[in-house]
Amino acid sequence: MPWTSALSRLFRRPLRSLLRGLIKAWVDVRLMEPDPASLGLSSTARTVYVLPHPALSDRLLLETLCARHGLPAPDLPFPDQRSSLQHWVALPGRRRKRAAPFLGYLEWLEAHPGKDIELLPVSVFWGRAPGKRFGLWSMLTADGWALTGRLKRALAVLVHGRNVEVHVGAPLSLRRLQDTRPDALTNRKVARLLRVHFRRQRTRVLGPDLSHRRTLIDGVVASPAVQHAIDETAAAEGLAAARVERRARRYGREIASNMSYPVLRLLDGLLERLWTRLYDGVDVHGIDEVKALAGDHTLVYVPCHRSHIDYLLLSYVLFHEGLMPPHIAAGRNLDMPVIGPLLRRGGAFFLRRSFKGNPLYRAVFQEYLDRLLSRGHPLEYFIEGGRSRSGRLLDPRPGMLAMTLRSHARGVTTRGHSGKLAFIPVAIGYERIMESKSYRAELAGKAKRRESPLALFRVMGRLRQPFGRVSVTIGKPLLLSPFLDAETPEWRQPSEEHWQASAVPRLGEELTLRINAAVPLNAVNLVALVLLATPHQAIERGLLEHQLSLLTDLKRAEGTPNSAVESASESASESTTLPVGTADEWINHAEALGFIQQRDQALGKLVLANPEQVSLLSWYRNNVLHHFALAGLVAFAFRNNSSFNLEELHALLAPGWPVLVRELYITPPKDLADALGATLYQLANKGLLVRDAQQEEADTCAPRWQRPSARLAANEQLHLLGRQVQPSLERGYLLLASLLRLPSASLTREQLAEQSGLLAERLALLSGLDTPEFFDRRLFSGLVGSLEADGWIWQDEAERLCYGAALSETAEQINTLFDPALRHRLQQLAVPAEKTG
User: Fold this and answer.
1) Could you tell me which residues are beta bridge partners of residue 597?
2) Which is the most buried residue in 195, 613, 718, 793, by most CB within 10 A?
């Protein structure tokens, strides 16, 4: 009736004003992405906001945010237009297929040829529930995949008004989307593009729709692969199939996560308080590239494993950056009372350390992983297997990588999946970790302490100690299908499976290189690099400041073209983050964290570390040693050699460089000679090297470099830079000396690694250094593997190591790297190898 319409119009404006005021007062937007100032809206085009649903709460919030950030108001009608066009529009629901939300705007463009309209998609999330039923929360709670009614949305505003996320897409020019087709077809095209955008945005934030855990486990057990494993196990053990099926179901319950939105919110609040108390701040780098992939790729996060904090930290960062936290592969040892159920509801799924001898468990786990990946759930696991006690990146384990590749290949070749899976390398850098003392004890030979809730409470007692800052840096993502196409094209053939034998190790190596290339530099690991390079772990403060500045300048200049040589290093393109501040501030910060001491002395302040601090600092040095390996190797070459040209330097360093690359997981340059040339020029620019004076007069084309004889400070800096890689070179020397003092085919791999480790331990004790990581047997096993991979040694039928004259000749050449005194000492240490043989 006319009077009811008039009455509705009379009360509509004051009611909207009242509701807008309530929204403004109650709602707190936790995340608005991107920053409104960076949207780059056209000053001439009209802005039309596009919402995925015609929700009044979203419109009122949008009006409030636009007024707050100085954006065009969405509630104004279009000028010079008799229709009811406004500066906002909502996509119609699926049932209203005939609706044409953009038809009026297209007609407006035809009537105004010189004008344009920019469509700005806006997604509003009132809390974040990943599509699963949570009892009362399902009625009250947040945005999920199910459609939201008015009552539920009103309750969601009340419950989640303090936890709102707003994601704004890139502006879309409506005029550019116009073509010669009728406006009705263009309308459908625009609506389709925006629906795809909103679907990808929803997937990025909420993740795929979750099934009920019991339903998921039932599906896993009922799958053909698991049923086949049940039949085989029943026949092999002489049991009834029903009994074995119950075992498979028990395995499923043991493995499967039970992600719960209320627990995610609880953990988010707890972790925010934990990080605030524990760290001075959490720095995140490179997350935008992940957001660009999250909408239409299945993401597999592969972080380095430094601490138990790693998986909590990464999930917290992703949640706060508007991304769905991943399902995390956790060791079964963490499925303990209190902690296990909490982690499981936070997204953890548990696996045993070994599947050997249990094909049924393997089948259940593989099927569970298949279903997570096929539905697009983000995953996270540590390819190192366990935490690094030495601070170095550990060798990648093949288990989870092999199962991921197998699942991906099955999905693409037999199930018709898109094949859009991306590995996301993540480097986490701590200024101080909670496990420092336990790592030191384990490296010294003590047994690893078993995890328990009681151990957690012991850790909580250390929360009042300073732990500095922590950095989460995203490395270069790896798209799996293109990688496999380049490495093993036969992976797309369903009948072929042998390709995994070569693809898995290659994938593990590539991911490890990408993680290591992204490891951030911070105050502690930089101070550790310099201080541990001194003979007695003591240095003048002024020299320490100069050396810290040198390291950051070298890293900053890495890959920068110069007038003579352009670096060809691939690692130069990686964005390694540098610490904020000055060298003076870094030293004071390291002292505040308890890693060093400063002592006033009549001739100037000294910085030193006691034996316990030295042992702790070695872990942080090993985090980042690979960043300066090439510069350190070049500097070490000048320690016992007065001058080199590029050709001589390359001939000396090239044989041993691949071994160092594998030990430290360095992204190798495309051309070592070019990288060496660039390094020489960088050191010369810092005054650490000079061109040979006689050659300058002769003006020859190939420069010859030498130490600056008149600059004692520069020589000392060059010496410190070279000493950074000396431990690695000493280990390699001891291993070669142990091998070459005996005839070929005298030692097995295990014997050589064991013998070399004992010699390194002896050297450390004689030098007065309490650094167990120096004689870690795993490092020597890796060195043996590197020599085998490069063809220097090989195994005979009795699995004894053989070598040829080429290795002996190269070892003699490498001897010139060491000064006579050090070489003599290392040779003397290797003498017992003769008796052992």
Assistant:
1) 608
2) 718
pLDDT digits (tens, 9 = 90+) for 455-466: 555 555 566 678
Show the tokens assigned to 574.
């990686």
| Cβ partners under 8 Å of residue 350, min gap 6 | 254, 255, 330, 331, 332, 334, 335, 340, 344
Q: Are strands 117-126 and 606-608 parallel, antiparallel or unpaired?
A: unpaired
Alpha helix locations (H) across 654-725?
Answer: 657-664, 672-685, 693-698, 712-723
Residue 12, Cβ density class (10 Å: 0-12 exposed, 13-18 middle, ≥19 buried): exposed
Average pLDDT over residues 630-635: 94
Check pLDDT > 60 for residue 777.
yes
- Pairing relation of β-strands 298-303 and 421-430? parallel
Distances (CA, A) of 804 to 339, 752, 791: 55, 17, 10
pLDDT at 153: 66
Report whether pLDDT(237) > 50: yes
CA–centroid distance for 620 within its chain: 18
Q: How far apart are CA 144 and CA 137, in angstroms?
A: 11
Pairwise CA distance, residues 530 & 534, whole Å: 7
Q: Which long-range contacts (CB under 8 A, 24 or more apart) does 556-560 make?
A: 557/682, 557/685, 558/682, 559/678
Which pTM value belongs to this model? 0.81
Peptide bond into 52 cis (omega under 30): no
Tell me the HSE value of 252 on the side-chain side, using a 13 A CA sphere: 23
Question: CA angle at residue 403 from 254 to 250, to 5 degrees?
Answer: 15
b/e burial code for range 451-481 (CB count within 10 A of at least 16 → b): eeeeeeeeeeeeeeeebbbbbbbbbbbbebb
Q: How many helices (H) and strands (E) does the chain have?
A: 36, 22
Tokens 């590995």, located at residue: 423
* Strand, coil or helix: 32: strand
Does an H or E element contain 426, and which? strand 421-430
What distances in angstroms separate CA 506 from CA 483, 522, 629, one per listed residue?
10, 30, 23
User: Can you say how many angstroms the Cα of residue 280 is from the centroid of all Cα atoms in its chain?
Assistant: 21
What's 38's DSSP letter? G
List of domains in the chain = 23-206 (no CATH), 260-514 (3.40.1130), 523-723 (no CATH), 726-836 (no CATH)
The average confidence (pLDDT) of the chain is 82
261 by DSSP, 3-state: which? helix
Name the token pair of 177: 């989307």
Max mean pLDDT among 132-136, 341-345, 416-420 falls in: 341-345
The Cα–Cα gap between 75 and 63 comes to: 7
Average of pLDDT values for 303-324? 87
Q: With the CA atoms of 186, 187, 189 and 194 taken in that order, what torsion angle do they form, in degrees rounded to the nearest 10? A: 140
Amino acid of residue 715: N
Which of 132-141, 165-174, 318-327, 500-509 is predicted least confidently?
Answer: 132-141
3-class DSSP assignment, residue 410: helix
Per residue in 163-214, pLDDT tens?
Answer: 788 888 888 888 888 876 788 888 888 888 888 888 888 877 776 655 567 8
